[in-house]
Amino acid sequence: MKWLDLNGIWSFAFQEKTAIGEAAEPAVFPDWMCVPGAFDALPAWYCRRGTAWYRREFEIAEDCTLAVLCLEGMGLRGRFFVDGREIGFSELAYSSLEIPAGPLKAGRHVLLAAVDNTFEGGHHPGLFQAFYDFYAFGGFYGGVKLKMMQGTFALDRVLVRTLDHRTGRVRLSLEFLGDVPEKVSAGIAFDHAPGKFYTFSGRDVELDVPDFRLWSPEDPALHTVTVSVEGAGSVTEPFGIREIKACGTKLFLNGKELYLRGFNRHESSGISGGSSSESLMLRDLQNLKRLHCNFVRGAHYTQNPRFLDLCDRMGILVWDETLGWNNTAADLADPGFRAMQVEQMELMIRHAFNHPSIIIWGFLNEFACDTPEGEAMGKLLCDTARAWDSGRLVTFACSRPLTDVVNQYTDLVAYNTYPGWIPANEAEMQMEPTESMAANQKTILQSLRSRYPEKPIMVSEMGTCGIYGQHDEANAQWTEEFQAEYLESVIRTVFGEPDLCGLAIWQFCDAKSFLRKGSNIRCKPLAQNLAGVFDIYRRPKLSCRIVETLFAEHERSKK
Q1: Which letter does DSSP use for residue 414 in this model?
Q2: Which residues 6+ apart lie within 8 Å of 395 measured at CB?
C-alpha cells in the first residue's frame, strides 16, 4: 500500500448561499485555501455559508488497481470527483471517511471537492441541524490522503484488541482490500523484537505481547505491532494494553478503581475555528494535565485522530461520541437520520479502534431518551457499538434523568444538569444559584439508583458561564468570580457524593455558537458558549485555579 499526502494549499472558489445540491463546478478558482482548514474561520469567508469548491492536481508514478480517498473529518457535507468522475458523497460531518476512487493510471490527475456548510436537510433531518448549540464550521477539519493498492489485494489495517491485560494476550484482526485468500501467511513483530511467521485461516490471530506494559493515565505505555503479508505489504499499528470495566456501581481500569475527573471539550478556536493544529491540541491537553484531569469528553462529535494520538501518549482517558444534540423524537424516527447514526457509530469505532485512551463510546447528546423513538434509537446504537467493540463502555449524556428509559441498555449512566444556572422551575429561579445544587443531585441520584441499582453513575455535564475579563465584587452572574464560585460548589458537591464515579465539567474552553439567530440565541453573548474555564483563545479564567486546587486534592485522596 502506498500513501499520498494531499494536505497543503488547494485552489478555491466559494458560492455563497448555494447548497451542494444546487452548486455547479465553477469555471475559475480565484482563491486559495489550506487543507486542513475551516474556510469560514478565515477573513475572506468569515461566517459565510454556501458551497466551497476545492481543487488540486496530484501525480502518481505507477498504475494502481485501487485508490481510496481518506478524509479525517469535513463539514457539513461533501461531494468528491476524480478527473471529472464523481466518486462519492457524504454528510457525515466530523467522521473519518474512506471513498473508493477506482483504479488510476500513472500520471497527473485532478481531485475536486464540493464542501457545503449550509443547513440543507434534503429528504430527512440533516445530521448537523441549525439549532445545535455549537457552530457548524465548513471545510476539512483534518487531513486528506490517497491510499493506493498495486496488485490484487493489500493489507489495509490491523485492529488490536486486549483479551487479557494480566498476560498481555491480544487479538489481531487483519483488514484487507481486494481479493483475499482463505489462508494468510504473515510475519508479525511486536515493538523492536524479532518477528515470527504465522499461517492462519480467516483474518484473526491471538498472540501474547512479549515484555508488555499496561497502558494507564499514570503510565501511558504504547506498543507497536508490524504485520507483513506476502504479496500484500505491511502495516505498523500503535496500541495499548488495558482493560476498562463497569462492575456494580464502580469503574475499573486494569482492575483498579477509576474515578473520572475532567472536562467536555469542543474542537473550537478563535483563530482556526473547527480545524485545530496539533500545537493547539497539545496546548489543550497540557492545560488539562495541569488541572489534574485524567479524562476528556469529546463533545459532541467524533474526535480528530491527531487529538486521539496525543491522548494516547499523554494518558488522557477519552469519551468519543457521534454527532447529535438535543434531537427530537421526530428526528429519531426518521429512517435517514437513523441510518446515518448507525453508520457514524461504525465509522467512529473502526477508525479509532486502536486508541487505548478511548474507554467510552457515546452517542446523541441530550436526545429524547424518554420516548419510544428514543428508546429504539438508543438500543440500536448500543447494540451497534457492542457488535463492533465489546471491550469499551457505551453510554450517552442524558438530560432527562428523571424520565429516561434508554439507560437500561448502557454500561454507564451519565447525566447533564445545570442547577441554578438553567433553573428547573420558578422556585429555583428565586434561589441563589448554588442553593439548589445539593437537592438537585439528591433527586436525580435517588431516581437513577432506584432504576439502575447496579450501574456506575457520573455527571457528564455541569457548569456555568463566565466572560473572560469581567469582574464584580458581588460575584454577579456572567463574571469570572461567579463562575469560580459556582464551579467550586459543583466540584465539592459531586466529589462529596460517594455514589458518583466521575465529573466532566462543562466546559474546557469557550466555543463559537449561534451568530445572530438560533435556539436560545440571547443566552449566547458574543456568539459563544462562554462556559469554558479558558476563553476561546485559551486564556485562563479565575475558575481555573479553583479546578486545579480541588482536582489536585481529589487526586491525592484517591491514591
Answers
A1: E
A2: 319, 360, 361, 362, 407, 410, 411, 412, 413, 414
Please state the domain extents for the chain. Answer: 2-149, 153-242, 245-557
Distances in Å between the Cα of 473 and the Cα atoms of 215, 467, 478, 481, 533 are 46, 15, 13, 8, 19
Q: At the topology level of CATH, where does 2-149 sit?
A: Jelly Rolls (2.60.120)
Segment holding 282, helix H or strand E: helix 278-290
User: Taking phi first (over 0 means left), then psi (-120 to 50 degrees means alpha), and beta for anything else, what does residue 361 get?
Assistant: beta
Q: Any residues with CB less than 8 A from the CB of 262 and at least 6 apart, and which?
A: 288, 293, 294, 295, 296, 297, 316, 317, 502, 503, 504, 505
Quick one: pLDDT band at residue 516, thresholds 50, 70, 90?
confident
Whether the predicted pLDDT of 176 surpasses 90: yes
Measured from the Cβ of residue 554, the count of other Cβ atoms closer than 10 Å reads 17
Cβ-based burial of 397 (10 A; exposed 0-12, middle 13-18, buried ≥19): buried
pLDDT in tens, 433-462: 899 899 999 999 999 999 999 999 999 999
DSSP, res 364? S
Consecutive H or E run containing 154: strand 153-164
252 strand-pairing partners = 245, 257
* 393, containing H or E segment: strand 393-395
Q: Residue 322 is placed in which grid cell? A: 457521534
Average pLDDT over residues 377-401: 97
Would you identify the CATH topology of the domain 245-557? Answer: TIM Barrel (3.20.20)
pTM listed for this prediction:
0.96
Q: By three-state DSSP, how is residue 408 classified? A: coil
Cβ-contact 102, 87 below 8 angstroms: yes
- Angle among Cα 523, 274, 323 to the nearest 5 degrees reads 75
Our CA angle for 81, 86, 92, nearest 5°, is: 80
Instruction: Tell me the mean pLDDT in the region 313-340.
Output: 96
By CB atoms closer than 10 A (0-12, 13-18, 19+), residue 394 is buried
Q: Mean pLDDT score of the chain, rounded to an integer?
A: 95
Q: Considering Cα of 460, then 462, then 465, then 466, what sign does the dihedral take? A: negative
Q: What is the CATH number of domain 153-242?
A: 2.60.40.10
Produce one character per residue of 251-275: b if its CB has 16 or more CB atoms within 10 Å, e if not. Answer: bbbbeeebbbbbbbbbbbbbebbbb
Buried b / exposed e over 311-322, threshold 16 CB at 10 Å, is bbeebbbbbbbb
Residue identified by cell 454528510 is 91
Which regions of 220-301 does DSSP assign to beta strands (E)? 223-229, 233-239, 244-247, 250-253, 256-258, 260-265, 295-298
> What is the Cα–Cα distance from 306 to 285, expressed in whole angstroms?
12
Q: How far is CA 121 from the centre of its chain?
A: 23
3 state DSSP class of 145: strand
Condensed to tens digits (0 to 9), the pLDDT of residues 235-280 reads 999 999 999 999 999 999 999 999 999 999 999 999 999 999 999 9
